[in-house]
Each structure stands twice: as structure tokens, then as C-alpha cells.
Design goal:
- It holds the Pfam family Arrestin_C.
- This is Arrestin domain containing 1a.
- InterPro entries: Arrestin-like_C, Arrestin-like_N, Arrestin_C-like, Arrestin_domain-protein, Ig_E-set.
- One of its GO terms (molecular function) is ubiquitin-like ligase-substrate adaptor activity.
- By secondary structure, the protein is mainly β.
- Among the domains are: about 130 residues, Immunoglobulin-like, CATH 2.60.40.640; about 150 residues, Immunoglobulin-like.
- Helices cover about 0% and strands about 40% of the residues.
- It has one helix and 25 strands.
- Strands 5, 6, 9, 10 and 11 form a five-stranded antiparallel sheet that branches. The protein has a five-stranded mixed sheet with strand order 15-21-20-17-18, with no helix packed on it. Strands 13-14-16-19 form a four-stranded antiparallel sheet, with no helix packed on it.
- The N and C termini lie far apart (about 135 Å).
Length: about 450
């Protein structure tokens, strides 16, 4: 080396791994065989990310600088023969990402020492790398709790003929791990074909993306475990474990050029069925004590209430619950009355009203199905939805007249009801409605006339 015997860089405490926000200090040692003239002795500390298009190349096509600090430890002068020691100290920014060494890119941190000599003399330099670890606390990641699960189905083809379907379900016990922990993989394979499948396998995969003009993806299988096959028409429960080796963490926070992802790939060799279970690898493991407790959900909203008018003019509310409603009970036969009801009752059921529809509740006409609904008194006619005839009753003459026809009473007066769905029989004046025939003992005695009905 000529005049220079040794140029060394030492970190205090022989420390090699630092964290963002920490200071790095050390000593530069210069050993000379004879005196040396120098312009300055400088120490530089820098960190950057470099991306290349060729594997294991250091000719960076894209770079990202994190910090670059330089301090001068000796001014212009002459260094005498012997050993000289110079101290330095730098502060590492809190935003610097974790060190990384990949096939197409690296995140590098280093300390360099320079001895600048006069013109036409040889300059001397030395560098020493150090590693930066930015801890990834898995407990701070969103949606980290619970298992990672997925499912897929695939047609089983043999000799260009589809013979059945393969259904594959798999999950991991957690979504976040640290190196040294065990991933518990559970899979369910349902072979709905007549052919035997290939072996099932689970692999821990690392996917590194290098962001350049044309992103480069580097996919590696870190660990792989394999199971058996599944015969035709069988269902298999498969459980396996994967030990995580020392690996870089999932997130390189602060770096815009490199992205790291991990996932467990569960696959069948034949047919080719594959699913992925994304996971995170960090430095601080999950703590069950920090798991957020499940908050009680808001009180359930009441179900909508359908209001149906009763013969007495009141509104009866029926709760539309999810449980099935009991069948409507038969309406009791009314007792004989001497006069007509004070309200106007139609003489026939609506044209679009069906027996037992909507669980016995009549639909409101404002519903999208545009069905007409109206409350019907059992005194108005002898048949209503939910009403049945006893065995000894003859529903003959008391049957209601169809809508769209006119009913002619014994006095020759006729009550005409429109057949269109837009008219509401409830709005008709009392003078156009027939008397309440059901309350009479027909056919033993004839029904009264309109005048008699109103006089009584």
C-alpha cells in the first residue's frame, strides 16, 4: 500500500445492527510507514437503494437516496509516521427503511473514510457496511387478527373428458408470524370425481417486486411440505406445519422501489388446483392480550310493521318476523244483527287477493308488486282468505258475486261493482251496497229489502 500501511473503520462496541433514529459512532485508524501529506480526511455515512435490470449486478439503473452525511476529521497538513485515530458520529434518520439484499436490488448502509492527497498523488479510501433494522410490529397492522382462508373449485379433466369437480379449502391459524414461529396449515380436499388426485403440497412463497419502468418480479419458494393424494369420491382433512426461517420482514417502510410479500400456496399436482393465503412476517409477534375485543353490535332494528285496517276501523299491526307465522284461524261466525254495520264493507273480495298470501297479511297497495289490499269484514261475504266452510254448510246462494257483475237483490235494485283495480269498493256510498246477507238465516227466510234494512 506504499506509505499507507492500514486504513480501518471500527464501530463502537463492535455493533453491526442499528435502528432508525439511533446514532452510529466509531473510529477511523490510519497507520503510516512514513509521513504523508493530505488535503483532508473525511468520513461519510450514507444509505440508499439501488435497482438493476440484471441479476446480481451493481450497475444501478434506478437509485433512491435516504441520507448522505459527511464530516471532516482532519484538515490539510502532514501526517507523521505511525498510527493516527479519528472519531466520528452520525445520526440515522428515523424514516430509513430496513436493509435488504435481493437479486435485482439492495438497500445499503455504509460508512466510508477518505484520505485526500495533493495533486497527482494517490487518494485512499475504505468502507464498512452496517445493517439497519426497522422493527415491524405485527400488532399494529390492520386486519391482522384471525386466520387467512381461501377456497377454490376446479373441474377434473381426464383424457379431455370432464369427470368431476375438486373443491379445495385451506387456511392458516394466523395472518402474522415472526422467524422461528410455526405456520399451521389446514386444508380440506373434496374429490367429487372418479379419478385420484395428485399429491397436495403447501409452500411458503416470497414475492419481491422491483419498481422500475418495467417492474421485475422475483418469486421464490422458501419452504415446501407435501402430503398424499385423494381418491375419487373421497374427502380429506390435511394438516401440516411450516417453520419460518430467518427472512426479511414483509414491509420495507420508507422504500418506494422494493416491495416484499409473503403467502402460503396450497396446491394439488393433478388437477392443477392452487390457492394462496396471504400472511405477514414481522419482528414483533402477535400478542393475544392486544387483540381488540369484539364490541357488542348495535341493537337490532325492529322489523317493519304492516298496518291492516280491521272491520272496526282500527289499525292492527302485524310484525313481519323472520320466524314463520302460524296459519290464520277461521273467522268466527257473527251473531245476527238488526242493523247494518256503521262502516262500508265491500260485497266481494278484491280481484287480486289470494288466500294465505304473505302469511295471512294483506299487502299495502304502495308496495312495488302493485297488488290491491283492503281490510274485509267477515260479515260482508261468506268467503274470505283464511276462512273455511264447515262440513255441514252449503256455500251456494250465499257465495259472493264476482267483481265486474251486478248483483240484483229481491227488490229489483242492483249494486254494480267495477271490475277495474283502480276503484275502491270501500269508497262507495252506503246506498249502493247490498245488505248483510250472511247474518240472515237464508234460505229459511228471504233477505230484507233496502228500505226495510234502513227502517230497522
Amino acid at each position: 500500500m506504499g506509505k499507507l500501511e492500514a486504513l480501518e473503520i471500527e464501530f463502537d462496541g463492535d455493533k453491526a445492527v442499528y435502528t432508525p433514529g439511533e446514532s452510529i459512532s466509531g473510529t477511523v485508524t490510519v497507520k503510516l510507514n512514513q509521513s504523508l501529506q493530505c488535503k483532508a480526511i473525511k468520513v461519510n455515512c450514507n444509505g440508499f437503494c439501488g435497482i438493476t435490470s440484471k441479476i446480481n449486478d451493481t450497475a444501478w439503473t434506478t437509485e433512491e437516496q435516504y441520507f448522505n452525511n459527511t464530516v471532516s476529521v482532519a484538515d490539510k497538513g502532514t501526517l507523521k509516521q505511525g498510527e493516527h485515530r479519528f472519531t466520528f458520529k452520525f445520526l440515522i434518520p428515523a424514516t430509513a427503511p430496513t436493509s435488504f439484499d435481493g437479486s435485482y436490488g439492495k438497500i445499503i448502509y455504509r460508512v466510508r473514510a477518505f484520505i485526500e492527497t495533493p495533486r497527482f498523488a494517490k487518494d485512499y479510501s475504505e468502507e464498512k457496511p452496517f445493517y439497519l433494522l426497522r422493527l415491524l410490529n405485527l400488532n399494529e397492522l390492520p386486519d391482522i387478527w384471525g386466520p387467512s382462508s381461501s377456497a377454490v373449485s376446479q373441474q377434473f379433466t381426464y383424457m379431455l373428458m370432464k369427470t368431476g369437480t375438486i373443491v379445495l379449502n385451506a387456511q392458516t391459524d394466523m395472518k402474522g408470524y415472526t422467524p422461528g414461529q410455526i405456520i399451521k396449515v389446514m386444508a380440506n380436499i373434496h374429490n367429487q370425481s372418479t379419478k385420484t388426485t395428485g399429491h397436495i403440497a403447501a409452500s411458503l412463497m416470497q414475492r419481491v417486486t422491483y419498481e422500475t419502468k418495467k417492474p421485475t418480479h422475483d418469486l421464490k419458494s422458501i419452504v415446501e411440505v407435501e402430503g398424499g393424494a385423494v381418491k375419487g369420491g373421497r374427502e380429506l382433512e390435511w394438516k401440516e406445519q411450516i417453520i419460518i426461517p430467518p427472512l426479511p420482514q414483509s414491509s420495507l417502510a420508507g422504500c418506494e422501489l422494493i416491495k416484499i410479500e409473503y403467502y402460503v400456496k396450497v396446491s394439488l399436482k393433478s388437477p392443477e388446483v392452487t390457492l394462496t393465503l396471504p400472511i405477514h412476517i414481522g419482528n414483533v409477534s402477535l400478542d393475544k392480550k392486544l387483540r381488540p375485543s369484539k364490541k357488542e353490535g348495535p341493537p337490532s332494528k325492529k322489523e317493519p310493521v304492516a298496518s291492516v285496517s280491521t272491520p272496526d276501523g282500527l289499525a292492527s299491526s302485524s310484525m313481519l318476523a323472520s320466524s314463520p307465522q302460524p296459519a290464520p284461524k277461521p273467522a268466527p261466525r257473527p251473531a245476527p244483527r238488526s242493523r247494518m254495520s256503521s262502516h262500508c264493507s265491500p260485497s266481494a273480495p278484491p280481484a287480486e287477493c289470494h288466500s294465505g298470501a304473505e302469511g295471512g297479511n294483506f299487502m299495502n297497495e304502495d308496495f312495488p308488486n302493485k297488488r290491491q289490499s283492503q281490510a274485509v269484514s267477515p260479515n260482508a261475504f261468506s268467503y274470505a282468505p283464511g276462512l273455511f266452510f264447515p262440513q255441514n254448510q252449503q256455500p251456494n246462494a250465499s257465495a259472493p258475486a264476482p267483481i265486474g257483475f251486478s248483483f240484483r237483490g229481491p227488490t229489483g235494485a242492483s249494486a254494480s261493482h267495477p271490475s277495474g283495480t283502480g276503484a275502491n269498493p270501500m269508497a262507495a256510498p252506503p246506498s249502493t251496497l247490498p245488505p248483510d246477507y250472511v247474518t240472515l238465516a237464508y234460505p229459511q227466510e228471504a233477505p230484507p229489502s233496502y228500505s226495510e234494512s234502513f227502517n230497522t
